[in-house]
Amino acid sequence: MIKKLLITIGSLIVLGYLGLSGYAYYHDTSYARRSASLVSYPAENGRIKTLLDEKACYYCHSRHTVLPGYARLPGMSQLSRYDVERGLNNFQIDALFESLQNGMPPPEADLAKIEFVVRDHSMPPKLFRSVHWSTGLTESDRRMLLDWITSQRNAHYATPGVAPEFSNEPIQPLPTSMPVDPRKVSLGMALFHDPRLSADNTVSCASCHSLSKGGVDGRKTSLGVGGQVGPINAPTVFNAVFNRAQFWDGRAAGLPDQAGGPPFNPVEMASTSWQQIIGKLDKDASLTKEFEAVYPDGYSGNSITDAIAEFEKTLVTPSRFDAYLRGDKTALTSEELRGYQLFKADRCAICHVGKNFGGQSFERLGLHGDYFADRDGGMTKADNGRENVTHDKQDLHRFKTPTLRNVALTAPYLHDGSVTDLSQAVRIMLKYQVGKEASDEDVKALVAFLNSLTGTYTPFKTQ
To answer: What is the model's pLDDT at position 384?
Structure first.
């Protein structure tokens, strides 16, 4: 009797597994067909979207996840919720899908993330594939994705002058020139250092973003008018032109928007209106004459922030690493090169991507552990990150990935300025973002590599 019972139970388990897998296969393939029929994509983009749908990437990585019916079953429900939560924390695919539909350049960090898991054979996970039989990537699938990533990087992200062997790197060298108006640059430089943008004429942009200190102020959080203490660590202004958005929470779309924020922040510059600022600038006859020669309509919020942004475009710091990517094989030491290989192998380069080693995506702090629970001190509103802007719980604790250029000069680190040592910062990022404890030798090599990113402020050539 016991033997027959075990056989029956075993048979039911096998039949249940086969039924579950069959349903999953039907769901995945039918969803891919429906998705392909609903929207028209450019030819190559359509092939990539169909492939990603067939592999059920949407299941765990889309905010618009369509789960199969079995996901409501006891046990499966909890597992599905866990998979989706983990997937969304690591990578959200919706922006990539939107770019495929619209024919726009795909997000640079998304390309790096997909490339890593394709090469690493880590997606889809083995447990997921054990039920979703159709989701494993074939070698043909891998080649299609990698070739597409290469084509997108070469078309949209490779820096002119990069050595051919590095044109498909997730990191790119800084450009050597870009169009700027030298007259606006001159005005912007003056305004950047002008404390009259603050209510009491004591604080300028340069107060928190000193060009002699790596573009920061070296404080845990910055000081505003009257010695008020700000809520967050000041990010560097150097190379900020290459960020997709500005501020840790991305509330400013570009440099002009960013420049218009601090003057009216009551904890920073505390001015009450542009008219208050303009009233002071108007009394400076020399500056006003120079300004009206460039902006015939005179001072305004738009013209002031436009000039500051034009100056900030020139705050670019090419380094020895840029020389290496442009073909100078002697630019880096062997230890720095080993650090760069570790930087890529440890998945640092899937978030710190592009010309600015960051600034291209919003990432959740604490993928492999609760950073905030382990940190000394209570929670602050600034710790909410991107959620403060979007009011979307999926954005809680997400921050714009900071640039690593000049990182050796910009301590203290993280949005809360809680880490003063670069080696410690490396260990913390490996622990909470990668889930890895690195050896002393590896940390030393990574820090050596990061030191190679210290650059020299060289104004752009004008075009």
So the answer is: 98
- The percent of residues in the chain predicted with pLDDT above 90, rounded, is 79
Residue 244: name the closest of 348, 148, 354 by CA: 354
> Pick from 306, 302, 299, 311: which is nearest to 196 by CA?
299
In the block, tokens 């889809």 appear at 124
For the four alpha carbons of 224, 227, 231 and 234, in that order, the dihedral sign comes to positive
Q: Strands 362-364 and 398-400: what pairing?
A: antiparallel
Residue whose C-alpha is closest to residue 247's, from 238, 258, 260? 258
Report yes or no: 408 and 422 within 8 Å, Cβ to Cβ.
Answer: yes
Q: Taken in order 192, 195, 198, 202, is the CA torsion positive or negative?
A: positive
Domains of the chain: residue spans and CATH: 2-156 (no CATH), 182-312 (1.10.760.10), 317-451 (1.10.760.10)
* 410 within 8 A of 209, measured Cβ to Cβ: no
| Cα-to-chain-centroid distance, residue 371 | 18
Beta bridge partners of 252: 246
Residue 88, pLDDT above cutoff 90: yes
Alpha carbons 167 and 150: distance in angstroms, whole number: 8
Compute CA distances 446 → 31, 335, 339, 430, whole Å: 43, 8, 4, 11
CA–CA dist 181, 312 (Å, integer):
12
Rounded Cα–Cα distance for residues 335 and 366 (Å): 29
Rounded Cα distance between 25 and 270, Å, is 59
Rounded distance, CA 84 to CA 256, Å?
A: 37
- Helix (H) / strand (E) containing 364: strand 362-364
* Ramachandran bin of 359, using left for φ above 0, alpha for ψ from -120 to 50, beta for the remaining angles: left
Residue 265 has pLDDT above 80, yes or no: yes
Whole-model pTM?
0.91
Structure tokens belonging to residue 208: 């928190």
Token pair of 291 as six digits = 């300004």
Cα–Cα distance measured from residue 56 to residue 129, given in angstroms and rounded to the nearest whole number: 10
Annotated catalytic, 268?
yes
Phi, psi (deg, nearest 5) at residue 414: 75, 165
Backbone angles phi, psi at 188, to 5 degrees: -65, -40
The residue type found at 65 is: T
Handedness of CA 69, 74, 79, 84 (dihedral sign): positive
Q: Which of 108, 115, 169, 268 is catalytic?
A: 268
